[in-house]
Design a protein that fits this description.
- The chain has a single domain, classed as Alpha-Beta Barrel (TIM Barrel).
- Helices cover 26% and strands 19% of the residues.
- It has 10 helices and 14 strands.
- The protein has a 12-stranded mixed sheet. A two-stranded antiparallel ribbon has the order 1-2.
- The longest helix has 15 residues.
- The chain starts with 26 loop residues before the first strand and ends with a helix.
- It is an alpha/beta fold.
């Protein structure tokens, strides 16, 4: 099957007649979508070396002076919430827990915004001793990456022997009141795909919400291929050996995961046994994209605005801030960046890629998930 490889820059979409300055206040794009969900990366550094994200030897990290300071992050969030209509914040990486001033960042944001939902995505390494302080600092909820419950498989995927630490971090997050804890799993063909029912069974037993995520073409090695990716349809088929999934009646409301109610399968009783055991989510960014209802705006750890996870266009935000820009000037830069958001990420619904799609130069760890 074909791979998606780096290539020349795409021509931008044709701009509709409406000038950006006539658009309503907020982070609107040319296709009528308004970004209210902010994904802000705190660092590109990570304590794992997941095969679907970065090479075994790691990457060349950003220079310390290039990374946004705690004060710059707090100001950016304040601007987004008070001036541009941001209603949810997710802190990402890299791995946020490697940032020394993480508690200062979260407590500073919380002091300005007492009611803002603040989530964080983490690999869970080191979370065991930090979950309670993070909750006390103002963190609302947490997503933890967990691709396997088996030490050897976990080590093969992450290149680190830290499964016990991650599981302890999951327990600590639940005990600290950061639940329901959401778990993110990427299935890799021939490595952990057969574990899908087991991961779901364990998550339901523990009271956690599992999200399966299609592997995306955001690896630093640019080795992604359609054959290697386990599709959403395949994930549903893998789970069907033990469970029956029915679409959750709750409104998706721009969320990346399609949620399903989970019931146990029993062929001797007509296929389904008893009430729903819980829910499972599937994020099918490649084969079942949800671009038409995307409400996310992204800021990288070095202060670049990205209107789309797969965008090759970055708008320098932090340099303008460091040059003394006013809040109004920064807001207009941010609005301009989001106005240029593409209609879609450029892959067709089969996930094979099209001539229009060009893989970003940055990997997931450098963009922020």
């Amino acid at each position: 099957m074909p791979s998606i490889r780096p290539g020349p820059e795409r021509e931008p979409d044709a701009v509709p007649p409406l000038p950006r300055r006539e658009a309503p206040d907020g982070l609107w794009d040319r296709y009528g979508r308004r970004a209210t969900d902010m994904r802000l990366s705190l660092t590109d550094r990570c304590s794992l070396r997941c095969t679907y994200c970065m090479p075994a030897k790691g990457l060349e990290w950003m220079a310390k002076q290039a990374v946004m300071t705690a004060e710059e992050i707090i100001r950016t969030v304040r601007l987004g919430v008070r001036e541009l209509g941001i209603r949810e914040l997710r802190l990402t990486g890299g791995e946020p827990l490697v940032r020394a001033d993480l508690f200062d960042v979260i407590s500073g944001i919380r002091a300005n915004h007492p009611h803002l939902p603040i989530a964080m995505t983490t690999n869970g390494v080191g979370l065991q001793t930090r979950a309670a302080p993070l909750k006390a600092a103002g963190l609302t909820r947490i997503n933890i990456s967990l691709d396997s419950l088996h030490e050897e498989t976990f080590k093969r995927l992450t290149r680190r022997p830290f499964l016990t630490q991650v599981l302890a971090g999951v327990d600590a997050a639940r005990d600290a009141g950061l639940g329901p804890v959401k778990l993110n799993a990427v299935l890799m063909r021939g490595i952990n795909d057969a574990e899908a029912p087991e991961l779901l069974r364990w998550s339901l037993q523990q009271g956690h919400e599992l999200r399966f995520i299609e592997q995306m073409p955001l690896d630093a090695d640019h080795g992604w291929s359609r054959w290697d990716m386990i599709t959403a349809a395949e994930i549903r088929e893998l789970l069907s050996t033990e469970y029956v999934l029915t679409t959750d009646p709750g409104h998706r409301d721009g969320a990346p995961a399609e949620r399903f109610q989970v019931r146990r399968r029993d062929s001797s009783r007509g296929g389904i046994t008893g009430p729903a055991l819980g829910t499972v989510g599937i994020i099918a960014s490649v084969t079942e994209p949800f671009c038409g209802d995307c409400r996310r705006t992204r800021i990288t750890a070095d202060g670049k605005i990205m209107s789309c996870l797969f965008s090759r266009q970055e708008i320098d935000f932090v340099s303008l801030m460091r040059q003394g820009a006013t809040d109004r000037e920064l807001a207009e830069r941010w609005q301009d960046a989001m106005w240029a958001k593409p209609r879609a990420h450029g892959m067709d619904h089969t996930g094979l890629g099209t001539e229009d799609f060009v893989q970003p130069d940055r990997s997931m760890s450098a963009i922020g998930g």
